[in-house]
């Protein structure tokens, strides 16, 4: 009883200090805290935090962390809350730092081809600003309208253009982050080459808010592709997918996206969305995007049919058609099924077909009525699996986690390709990282956040 009272008093005095530092409107408590602060898109968060702070500047983030550090108060950074690993989920004892007001593009430098942006800016806003300046921001994910640059970088997001431009990490030249004790480390480098000592930005990229809070970034921009051709290809087996990928990269070039859809998945989604590009049924579908000339794309695809690598192909003639192909990949009808669990794994490319077959068979053997949907970016070794299972007594999402991650380990894969570890995959991290790697991660965490106030219970 005394303990609870002491905790309440210290919380009240911390909130009073935070209000004095940030102003009243920037500190939300109780009923002022909206439902969106409870859970990311994994829908696994259960409790609101006891306060939500909305800083507008790195200096305000620094003031928050200084106060929370002295009080030993845990803090969780929240971006757009589109994460799928529970990384932004708070407990009732946490304070959330919501980045939404730390928003805006500070500069687009068309000579250096860079954009300097505040961490709370939605990805789509950055993409549009780059396009308006005649340039191209290569990072692109389905959650582009809601996810924020800070969230993208702290998860090292992947998305549909990794095969051509690399992951979020590859789009970053400079970074500003605030450490657990409130120190602001500003390294807004604009140069492609800079080997002056340790490249500190990589400590914060992909560490899911456990080593510091990202406040600004310098992003790399690219020349804008003149036009993108989108083709939907029908193939007979998974080996043909890899052949098509490698031939497209070698002979067509400029492959911007390559998404493969396994049979259960495209049959389920395309039927609900009424997307019927082919007269015959094909086991596998591939969405291929290239910035090569339209004539070259058509000639390449015709050659692939002639050689028997693929069975049929439809090239989008309008943006609406391209959008219809992508709507199958985006797979929203799947979200309506019960007990959805999303997996984001990566495998050595040669193992992808065998892994998918083993995983699908194991799930269907244990739960014959289960849905097991498989699709993925393939060229970057990434496979997504979405399950919808009517669990038996004593079973839950961890039963299917054990099964899928066991298969990932057996095929020398990684339990996270792009979504991160968050809270949901923490207990499986040892399947993809050695004891020495885990020990070094703990050393880094201890050095940067000795009191463990940054996103506790996540990643390690
Ligand atoms: C429809 C849909 C499609 C998706 N497609 C993809 C995809 O193709 N590829 C992919 O990689 N992901 C994908 N995702 C997952 C998700 O969108 C990404 O992980 C995204 O990068 C998360 O950004 P966010 O701003 O929503 O971060 P949040 O969910 O708010 O947070 C994610 C993590 O980052 C931390 N964090 C947030 N902001 C900061 C900051 N400023 N500083 C430090 N830490 C911070 C949080 O504490 C948390 O640990 C998809 C999600 C959805 C719903």
What does this structure look like?
By secondary structure, the chain is α+β, with helices and mostly antiparallel strands. It has 4 domains: 2-101, Uridine Diphospho-n-acetylenolpyruvylglucosamine Reductase, domain 2 (2-Layer Sandwich); 105-223, Uridine Diphospho-n-acetylenolpyruvylglucosamine Reductase, domain 3 (2-Layer Sandwich), CATH 3.30.465.10; 229-332, Alpha-Beta Plaits (2-Layer Sandwich); 337-440, 2-Layer Sandwich (Alpha-Beta Plaits). Helix content is 33%, strand content 20%. It has a 7-stranded antiparallel beta sheet, sandwiched between helices. It has a 5-stranded antiparallel beta sheet with strand order 5-6-10-8-9. A hairpin with a 4-residue loop joins strand 5 and strand 6. Helix 1 runs antiparallel to helix 2 (58-71). The two termini are 32 Å apart. The structure holds flavin-adenine dinucleotide. Flavin-adenine dinucleotide is lined by residues 40-41, 76-84, 87-88, 99, 119, 141-143, 147-148, 150-152, 154-155, 157-159, 208-209, 213-214, 418-419, 422, 455, 458.
Bound molecules: flavin-adenine dinucleotide
Oligomer: single chain
Structural class: alpha+beta
Question: What is the overall number of helices?
Answer: 13
Number of strands: 18
Give the CATH level 1 class of the largest domain. Answer: Alpha Beta
Question: Per CATH, what is the topology of the largest domain?
Answer: Uridine Diphospho-n-acetylenolpyruvylglucosamine Reductase, domain 3
Low-pLDDT runs of 5+ residues are: none
How would you characterize the largest beta sheet?
7 strands, antiparallel
Order of strands, widest sheet: 15-12-14-13-17-18-16
């Amino acid at each position: 009883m005394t303990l609870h009272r002491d905790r309440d008093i210290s919380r009240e005095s911390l909130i009073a200090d935070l209000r004095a530092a940030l102003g009243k409107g920037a500190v939300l408590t109780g009923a002022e805290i909206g439902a969106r602060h409870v859970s990311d898109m994994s829908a696994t968060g259960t409790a609101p935090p006891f306060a939500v702070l909305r800083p507008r500047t790195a200096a305000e983030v620094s003031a928050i962390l200084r106060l929370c550090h002295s009080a030993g108060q845990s803090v969780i950074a929240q971006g757009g809350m589109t994460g799928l690993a529970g990384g932004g989920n708070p407990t009732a004892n946490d304070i959330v730092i919501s980045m939404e007001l730390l928003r805006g593009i500070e500069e687009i430098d068309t000579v250096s081809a860079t954009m300097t942006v505040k961490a709370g800016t939605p990805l789509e806003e950055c993409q549009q600003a780059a396009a308006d300046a005649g340039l191209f921001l290569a990072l692109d994910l389905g959650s582009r309208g809601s996810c924020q640059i800070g969230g993208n970088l702290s998860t090292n997001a992947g998305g549909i253009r990794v095969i051509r431009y690399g992951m979020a990490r590859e789009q970053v030249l400079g970074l500003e982050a605030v450490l657990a004790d409130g120190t602001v480390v500003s390294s807004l480098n604009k140069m492609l080459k800079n080997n002056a000592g340790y490249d500190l930005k990589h400590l914060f990229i992909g560490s899911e808010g456990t080593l510091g809070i990202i406040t600004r970034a310098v992003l790399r921009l690219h020349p804008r592709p003149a036009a993108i051709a989108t083709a939907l290809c029908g193939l007979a087996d998974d080996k043909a997918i890899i052949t098509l990928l490698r031939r497209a990269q070698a002979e067509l070039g400029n492959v911007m996206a390559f998404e493969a859809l396994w049979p259960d998945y495209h049959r389920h989604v395309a039927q609900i969305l009424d997307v019927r590009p082919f007269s015959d049924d094909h086991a596998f579908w591939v969405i291929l995007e290239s910035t090569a000339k339209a004539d070259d794309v058509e000639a390449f695809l015709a050659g692939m049919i002639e050689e028997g690598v693929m069975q049929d192909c439809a090239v989008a003639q309008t943006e609406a058609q391209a959008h219809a192909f992508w709507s199958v990949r985006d797979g929203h009808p799947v979200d309506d099924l019960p007990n959805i669990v999303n997996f984001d794994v990566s495998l050595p490319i040669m193992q992808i077909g065998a892994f998918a077959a083993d995983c699908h068979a194991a799930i269907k053997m244990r739960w014959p009525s289960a849905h097991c949907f498989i699709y993925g970016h393939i060229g970057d070794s990434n496979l997504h699996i979405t399950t919808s299972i009517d669990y038996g007594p004593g079973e839950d999402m961890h039963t299917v986690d054990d099964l899928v991650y066991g298969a990932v380990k057996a095929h020398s894969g990684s339990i996270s390709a792009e979504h991160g570890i968050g809270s949901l995959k923490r207990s499986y991290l040892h399947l993809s990282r050695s004891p020495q790697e885990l020990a070094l991660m703990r050393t880094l965490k201890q050095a940067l956040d000795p009191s463990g106030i940054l996103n506790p219970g996540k990643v390690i």
